[in-house]
Structure formats: structure tokens, C-alpha cells
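tool=predict chain=A
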Amino acid sequence: MLDDLKMIHERDAQDALGIAEKEPLQLLQDYPLEGNTSYRTVYNVIYTGMGGSALAALLIPTWPRLGEPFEVVRGYDLPPYVDHETLVIAASYSGNTEETLSAVAQAEEKGAQIAVITGGGKLQQIAQEKGYPLVILPKVEQPRYAVFANFRALLQLLVLTGLLKEDFRATLTTVGERLTQAVQAWRPDVPTTQNPAKQLAQELIGKSIVVYGGPKMGPAAYKWKISFNENAKQIAWTNQFPEFNHNEFIGWTKQPVDKPYAIVELRSSFEHPRVQKRFEVSGRLLSGLWPNPHIIDAQGESVLEHLLWTILCGDFVSIYTALLNGLNPAPVEFVEKLKLELGK
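tool=predict ok
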């Protein structure tokens, strides 16, 4: 079925596969920057955003790993320690996310320094009226398809603060060019017999998916979860090693007896050696007690390339799973319905 290009074209009405193929290009360009770009000393950073707008910030602990405290807030309220030495980066692709707007209002009350990443809406208006540093994202079909652009925009802001001193542009250019080649293996015109993304989608359709990674690949595992939720409209969960071994590991041993799940493990040679061993030992001990994991070995020459390659792989797999489900991957109709109900 996944080799039927006519079917793919009909079901993938917004060309999610084409968007996924072009995602690496988002790493290769700077995005428009407005506002007052001078900062006072920054001692800690809060990144506030929801859903796809939060994803870019989750990559930071893997790369480039800032030396200052960096916390991601996905909710209405900022932590109590926020003050004038805190940089609050507010991200909302629509610019109208109510949780993020609430956090911005609190940041202003606390006298925090504020920067904004958005594609428009109220958040852009606030930033332009008050002169906050503002990065405007390019238009894409859904926020989850702009993660790489959001990531580059975030790095641009961190350079302005002096928190990021290395030349990230050269690194992103190299990785982006390599990923542009890597995604060719997952294109729709590559037949299933030679296309690992199509093959895995056929294994995952109709199952509850559990995605595991270590600390380095944890953000990619979370992106896989979101991609399956929003692209395939299929339930998925995620967790990380080594925490997995201290609780969830036991849960697999007994109940439920009939396990209607599919397990995906995102492995990287850049994980701590003990984390790598935990994957192997856990799989051996749970053999016969849980579904055999589908192991994804991250490809590339750096931890950043491993992370982004794995995210792209999940995008293609989840989009193909959506097509097998008979669905258009792009729309998230229930999210829109929820927003309408909350607005009443």
C-alpha cells in the first residue's frame, strides 16, 4: 500500500512527507530578528511553550548543553525564583497559546528579561509593542513541523545573551547537509523493500506505542511520541533509561498478560556506557515478557546528528503510519475543538 504514490498523494493532502523531507533545510538559515537585542547579565533561562513549540527547548540538554540553569515550563505558571536576572524565552507558533501568554504576563510582573519566538498572533504583537527580542518563524502546516527552525531560532537568541559562545551555524550547516542526504532513504518513491521507515510503520499500525531512549535521545523519544499522537492519531508513551529500570521495568513482567503494545528503542553510541548496557540487559531479562523491541540505531558523526536524525526518522515513520490508518497526517482537529470549547 505504501508504494501506491497515488494513494499517498490523496491521503497526504498537506504534503507532510514533503515537509518532513525539507525539515533539514530549516537548520541552514537564520530567521528574522527584531527588537532590543541588548541584555543584562543572565543567570538562568526559562523557556515557556506548549506542544510542538516546546520541543526545540528539550534538545538543549543534549546539545549544546548550556552552563547556566535552563528550565522548560509547559504550563501557565513560572517558578518562584524568576527575577530580573532570568531570561524568559516565550515560544508559541500561533502566538495565541494561553499558557504561554500567561507566563509572559508573570515574567513582566517579576521584571524578568523576555524574548519571543513566534509565527504571529498576540505574542508577536506584545513583543513588537514592547521591543522584546523577537524571532519570527517561517510558515509551516503545523508547529511540530517547525522544530528545527525553532531550534535554530532559540540558538540565535542564546548567542545574543552570551550564554552560547560557539559557532553553532557551522555545526548546523554540516548536520543539515548530512540530514538532507539521509532522508532520501525514507522518501515515498523508495519502495517498501528498501525503505526502513515504511517497514517500521507496517509493524506499528494499530498498536499502542512505547518509545524508550536514554538521556541523550530522550528528546527524540518524546518527539516520536508526539508525532504518533498527532500524525498517526495513535496513542503513544515515552520514558527514559536509566529511570525505566527503577519502576516501569517491573511493570512489564506481569500485567497486562496480553500486551497490545509495540516497543521502539532509540539507541545511540553517545549515551553513557552504563545506559547502553542497561538497554541490552533489560531486553535480555524481559525477553518473552514484553514485545520484542524495534531497535533504532541513531546514525551520524555527532550527538547532535544522532538526535536530529532520529527525530526525522520518527517523523517519516509516523506519517507512513497515518497513511496506513487511512488518515491525513497534518490536521489536529480535536486540538482545535478543544480550543473552541475553552474559549466559550
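The chain has a mean pLDDT of 96. The chain is about 40% helix and 15% strand.
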